[in-house]
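Input sequence (260 aa), recorded before submission:
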Amino acid sequence: MDIIVLLKQVPATDTLVKIADDGVSIRTEDIKWVINPYDEFAVEEALRIKADMAGTVTVLSVGPDKAQEAIRGALAMGADKGIHVNDPALERCDALTVARVIAATLKSESYDLIIAGHRAVDDDNFQVGPAVAEYLGIPHIPFVVQQEITDEEIKCERTVEGGIAVIKAPLPMLFTTQRGLNEPRLPSLPGIMKAKSKPLEIKSLSDIGLDDGSVADPLTKVISLNLPPERKAGRMIEGETAEEKASSLVRALAEEAKVI
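Predicted structure, C-alpha cell format:
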C-alpha cells in the first residue's frame, strides 16, 4: 500500500497574524509555523494503514524553503520520504494552481491512496484535496472519520449534517480527514533523529513538466487583506431592580441599537 499524504505548513493558531505592508499578504517574521492540524490527522492515518498493510508513506508539500520543516516533522512521525515542490513562480499561487502542481507531481509517483486534511487553517478554502482528485481522475470522499480497506476497495464513514454517511470507492482514491478520525502521535526523539537522514526530493516546476506560464495567471487573487473592525466595549445596564434593568435594556435596544 503506497500512500501519499498532502501537507501544508501554516501559521500556528495562537500566532498573532499581522498584515504586511503590501496589503495582500501577512508578515512572516515573527510567525510560528506548524503542520496544518488536519494534515496531521492525514499523516497519522497513513501511518496506521501502513502498520496494518505494509507499504510506504510519502509526504508531499508545495511551498517555500521553510516548508521543509513541516515535511521533516512528518518524517519524524514515521513517514518514509518527502517531496517538496519549491519554485519562485508559486509564491502567490491559488488553491487550484497548487492542486494542479500536486497532480502533475503525482503523475510520476506510484500510489494506491492519497490522504489530505479537509482544509488548511490559514485560508479555509477546502479546495486542494478535491481538486487534486479531479485532476487525477480518481474518486474522492471528504470529511472522513473512519475508514476500512479491503480487496482494493475502501469504505469510509464521513460526516454529513445530522449524521454519518457510509461510502465505498475503488482504489486508487483520495479522502480528506476530519477531526475524530484519530489522535496524531508526537514525534519521538529517535524519530526526529531518523528524519534528518530520510530522503527528501526537491522539485521545481520544470521537474514536474510545468513552466512559469502555467501558474502565472491564477483564477483567484487576493485583492486586499483587512483586519475586522474593533469591537466596542460592552455596556452594563444599571438599575435597582430586575424590572428597572429590563426596562433600561429594552429602551436601549429600541432607541439606541434600533434592533427592536
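Checked by second reader. The longest helix spans residues 37-53.
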